[in-house]
Design brief:
The complex is a heterodimer of chains A (387) and B (564). Chain A has 387 residues and is of the alpha+beta class. Chain A folds into two domains: 6-58, no CATH class; 131-382, 2-Layer Sandwich (BirA Bifunctional Protein, domain 2), CATH 3.30.930.10. Chain A has helices at 27-37, 47-58, 76-83, 97-102, 129-143, 157-162, 191-203, 218-221, 231-240, 282-295, 337-340, 356-364, 377-382; strands at residues 6-11, 14-19, 90-92, 108-110, 147-148, 154-156, 181-183, 224-226, 246-255, 267-276, 301-305, 311-321, 325-335, 349-355. Chain A has a seven-stranded mixed β-sheet, with helices on both faces. In chain A, a hairpin with a 2-residue loop joins strand 1 and strand 2 (14-19). In chain A, helix 5 crosses helix 12 (356-364). Chain A is elongated. Chain B has 564 residues and is α+β, with helices and mostly antiparallel strands. Chain B has four domains: 3-67, Phenylalanyl-tRNA Synthetase, Chain B, domain 1; 76-270, Phenylalanyl-tRNA Synthetase, Chain B, domain 3 (3-Layer(bba) Sandwich); 278-346, 2-Layer Sandwich (Phenylalanyl-tRNA Synthetase, Chain B, domain 1); 362-559, Bira Bifunctional Protein, Domain 2 (BirA Bifunctional Protein, domain 2). In chain B, strands 4, 5, 6, 7, 10, 11, 12, 13, 14 and 15 form a ten-stranded mixed β-sheet that branches. In chain B, strands 19-23-24-28-27-26-25 form a seven-stranded mixed β-sheet, sandwiched between helices. Chain B has a three-stranded antiparallel β-sheet with strand order 1-3-2. In chain B, a hairpin with a 2-residue loop joins strand 2 (34-39) and strand 3 (42-46). Classes of the chains: A alpha+beta (387), B alpha+beta (564). Chains A and B meet through helix 5, strand 5, strand 6, strand 7 and strand 9 of A and helix 8, helix 10, helix 11, strand 19 and strand 21 of B. Strand 7 of chain A pairs antiparallel with strand 21 (406-407) of chain B.
Chain lengths: 387, 564
């Protein structure tokens, strides 16, 4: 659009610009100034201003907002009510302390919510589901009159194997492997007890056993390892407290050199329980196992002969799980005389041990052992415990 | 536990009965063995480590015959004419030898495989990878007795090793053959190597390395010569007994003893089968099992299972186990044998009537209380491995290296040492949750292990709690407030004292004191450490030793602790 505001001419080969008007305000600027003072509706603007407004909107200099008008028209009923006396009531969304104290809440109407709508998501802080399962096991055992005991992760081979009559050079020692320590590497041993254990391993000592018939080395027994089962905690208890009745359990971490995958871990939990009393026998062992398993919901059981170097007779218990079918849940037995006599224990001892993770996975419906040690916070926040 | 492979048809042949996988499953379940898997007719059985006599189909068949069919297995053992002379030169290298002959065998590929399997499984387990004992089986028709067992200097030895068509010297065998290389260490530094020869100086084997090619057993072999050499007499004799008895199942069940002439001019017939007899009272069996079992039942059943049983007085039996069993050390082992024969599932469980008071340890009581409070404070509990590595514990946290419990053969470089603190483990956790919603408030109550040479096992567990927060912005108060809230809930008075540590921001860290005693630390984490872990948001934590806190809490809450 030519506005005749300047003239351009060529003089001596140069382009020269001359102004033609002294003062000029563009219509765009005028409109912007007008709108800066007050908001107008499109209808209130002239035809040309409307065109300019659209142009300015395109240049993102102004904004056109839709403004809705709703007409409220009184119906007949309303008119009728109006003829009577009415109070005007204010509708309010949030109830405040002021309103309650000042009594204003009586004069206002609290807005009604759509109570069926979903709330925003929040995650409660929770106990870890696996620890919760372990607590459940502890609760069950305490309710059955068992006393909890604990021990350290680092053990001597002596307590972990030799006291439990696992021969130093025998396949029995390899029923499962263990982690030997690089540092520290040698522990201390009670020499008097070691003498008895040595005699028992080599020739049976006074136990009535033939022993293993192989030389026993105290140096090997001093090797430090990470405990590979929790029975070691139970026998340490028995060595301290030899008077019946004893009912003791321990739940703790044990370590075996298995590579980490869905069903194996180099570190997992074992539960170990023992009962020492003059009155107990193999059938009462089956009885206590039956009661314990029933309390975690496993009632259909099968007993199978088994071999553990430190118990005789030994038994493995299979339980029927709704989803997983028959599964091996625990190993048990009566401590061998070769275990009891060196420790100076004069009464029969029932013992059982089981892996906690496998049972937890069955109960919690988890298929990968690594999920029990997850590093995924969102999973922990969202997992609900079926306990 | 060894897993052996057997064939269903072969088991049917050995037991003289028809079997199905289900039937076998049922029988095997009532023993210490277990069916591992089934692939058509091949059955994989996990065999109990204390029953080497079951390491092949013949042993499993014997078990089925007695347990399922009630038939006992009787073997004839007689002294034979064959002799073997032991030269005194073997004394320093591999002193013991026992031999036997089993005749009139009818072998096929399956039975041949079973003999090899038995030999291999025994080698791995009871023979301690051939170091304690090693077994050889030869075709008797290729041999001319009498035999001799000598030790010769390696340069005097030359024969065709099994699987090779040319003669080799002892050194060549150790350096080039597969078995030679695998077991050479067993003869390391020995000036003379053991050698088994027949009367024509034909080499049978160079124990414990390899047999000779010319004396090997084939499916056409009818008579076998078995030798076991080793360094432990009981093992040598037992391995021979098991080999001989199981191989004899493929013939007439007859074992011919070999006369071993020892250097001291003494001689013995092997296998030696005079097992130790045990005196067992029926009352002992009754007391241990809790059943009123009949003496006749025990006698009859044990006899059927190959035991020799003599009644020596009312209520007392003299029992000798079969010569091929290794699992009888004590009368209690016979109690278990009776229980297995009786059937574990015929022993009805009875609840023990032992009255005791149940209790939790003090550590458990305190841990659970602390956990409850932390959850109330909005912290999510996590559960981590005790195993970690020096990179996480020290390098990333800028901590000075300390002595920690370290294993000799870790399963991976990620898990080499046990944690001595919790906070590096929690930082590692936070580093893996960059995308989880903020703020993140986590805690762990767990054991750390500290090396301390004054303890019996040179290391001790301590129960710790570590709570950690991360958010877009943080203040020292964000962690100080929950720490104080926790201590207040435990009825303890806590105070802080400025602390300088490389993993904390200078001026934003403190020692946690209760009754003026150091119980832990708290502070904002040094951004250098955060970057080492790849964390982009500020982090603050407190870590408190609950083991040191325990006696202080106990004083305040004496009634909730009832452990021994």
């Amino acid at each position: 659009m030519k506005k005749k505001l300047i003239r351009i001419s060529k003089e001596d080969g140069q382009t020269v610009i001359y102004p033609l008007a002294k003062e000029y305000t563009s219509p765009e600027r005028a409109l912007l100034e007008k709108l800066a003072e007050k908001t107008y509706s499109l209808e209130e603007l002239s035809e040309s201003e409307r065109k300019l407004a659209m142009e300015l909107k395109r240049r993102k200099l102004l904004e056109i907002r839709d403004h809705k008008h709703k007409k409220i028209v009184l119906q007949e009923l309303g008119e009728a009510i109006l003829k009577e006396e009415v109070e005007v009531v204010e509708e309010v969304a949030a109830l405040t302390s002021d309103m309650i104290v000042s009594g204003k809440w009586r004069k206002i109407q609290l807005k009604k919510y759509d109570v069926t709508a979903s709330p925003p998501k929040i995650s409660p802080a929770k106990k870890h589901f696996f620890n919760e399962f372990i607590e459940l096991l502890k609760e069950i055992l305490v309710s059955m009159g068992f006393q909890e005991y604990s021990g350290d992760f680092v053990e001597t081979e002596f307590w972990n194997f030799d006291v439990l009559f696992q021969a130093q050079d025998h396949p029995a020692r390899e029923v499962h492997g263990c982690f030997k320590l690089k540092y520290p590497s040698k522990g201390d041993i009670d020499e008097i007890l070691a003498e008895k254990v040595k005699a028992t391993h080599e020739k049976g000592w006074i136990t009535g056993s033939t022993g293993w018939g192989i030389p026993w080395s105290i140096d090997k027994a001093r090797n430090l390892i990470l405990r590979s089962q929790m029975t070691v905690v139970s026998v340490r208890f028995l060595y301290k407290f030899k008077e019946p009745p004893v009912k003791v359990f321990s739940i703790g971490r044990v370590f075996r050199p298995d590579a980490l995958d869905a069903t194996h871990s180099m570190e997992f939990h074992h539960l170990d329980g023992i009962i020492m009393d003059e009155s107990v026998n193999f059938r009462s062992l089956l009885g206590i196992l039956k009661e314990f398993l029933a309390r975690i919901g496993l009632t259909q059981l099968k007993f199978k002969p088994a071999y553990f170097p430190f118990t005789e007779p030994s038994v493995e218990v299979y339980a029927h799980h709704d989803r997983l079918g028959w599964m091996e849940v625990l190993g048990a037995g009566m401590f061998r005389p070769e275990v009891l006599l060196p420790l100076d224990i004069k009464y029969p001892v029932l013992a059982w041990g089981m892996g906690v993770e496998r049972l937890a996975m069955a109960v919690l419906g988890i298929d990968d052992i690594r999920k029990l040690y997850t590093r995924d916070l969102s999973f922990l926040r969202e997992f609900s415990v079926p306990l | 536990m060894p897993i052996i492979e057997v064939n269903l048809g072969d088991l049917e042949r050995l037991t003289g009965t028809t079997l199905t996988v289900d039937k076998l499953q049922e029988i095997i379940f009532s023993t210490k063995c277990e069916i591992d898997s089934v692939s058509e007719d091949t059955i994989f059985i996990e065999v109990s480590a204390d029953r080497p006599d079951l390491f092949s189909a013949e042993g499993i068949a014997r078990l089925i015959r007695t347990l399922h069919l009630g038939k006992s297995s009787i073997y004839k053992i007689k002294d034979g004419e064959t002799t073997l002379t032991v030269d005194s030169s073997v004394k320093d290298v591999r002193p013991f030898i026992a031999c036997a002959i089993v005749r009139d065998l009818s072998l096929d590929e399956e039975s041949f495989k079973q003999i090899m399997q038995l030999q291999e499984k025994l080698h791995i387990t009871y023979c301690r990878n051939r170091s304690k004992a090693s077994i050889g089986v030869y075709d008797m028709d290729t041999l001319t007795p009498p035999f001799k067992y000598v030790a010769l200097s390696p340069d005097q030895i030359s024969f065709k090793p099994l699987g090779y068509s040319t003669e080799m010297t002892a050194e060549e065998i150790l350096q080039t053959t597969e078995k030679g290389m695998e077991y050479a260490h067993l003869l390391e530094d020995k000036p003379r190597y053991p050698l088994l020869l027949d009367s024509r100086n034909i080499v049978l084997s160079m124990p414990p390395i390899i047999n000779s090619e010319d004396t090997k057993v084939t499916v056409d072999t009818t008579d076998v010569f078995i030798d076991v050499t080793g360094i432990h007499w009981k093992t040598v004799n037992k391995m021979l007994s098991i080999m001989a008895v199981n191989i004899s199942e493929r013939g007439k069940g007859e074992i011919e003893r070999v006369k071993i002439i020892l250097p001291e001019n003494k001689s013995i017939y092997t296998p030696v089968t005079n097992e130790k007899a045990f005196k067992i009272s029926i009352d002992y069996i009754r007391k241990m099992l809790g059943i009123d079992i009949d003496e006749k039942f025990v006698e009859e059943k044990l006899r059927a299972h190959g035991f020799t049983v003599k009644s020596i007085s009312e209520n007392e039996l003299l029992i000798t186990p079969p010569f091929y069993r290794v699992d009888f050390l004590h009368p209690i082992d016979f109690v278990e044998e009776v229980a297995i024969i009786y059937g574990y599932n015929n022993l009805s469980p009875i609840p023990p009537k032992v009255f005791t008071f149940g209790s939790l340890t003090d550590e458990t009581v305190l841990s659970e209380k602390v956990k409850d409070i932390m959850i109330g404070l909005g912290f999510q509990e996590i559960c981590s491995f005790t195993f970690t590595n020096r990179d996480i514990l020290f390098k990333k946290t800028l901590r000075l290296e300390e002595e920690v419990v370290e294993v000799e053969k870790p399963i991976s470089l990620e898990y080499t040492v046990l944690r001595d603190r919790l906070f590096p483990i929690l930082l590692d956790f936070v580093s893996k949750n960059a995308h989880a919603e903020l703020p993140q408030k986590i805690f762990e109550v767990g054991d750390v292990v500290k090396v301390d040479l004054k303890y019996e096992t040179k290391a001790k567990n301590f129960r710790h709690i570590c709570a950690m927060i991360t958010d877009d912005t943080l203040s020292f108060e964000a962690i100080q407030a929950p720490l104080f809230a926790l201590m207040k809930a435990l009825n303890l008075k806590v105070s802080l004292r400025p602390l300088t540590k490389p993993y904390f921001i200078e001026g934003r860290a403190a020692e946690v004191l209760v009754d003026k005693e150091h119980v832990g630390e708290t502070g904002e984490v040094n951004p250098e450490v955060l970057l080492n872990f790849g964390i982009r948001t500020p982090v603050a934590f407190f870590e408190v030793n609950l083991t040191t806190l325990l006696p202080k809490v106990k004083k305040k809450f004496p009634y909730i602790f009832y452990g021994r």
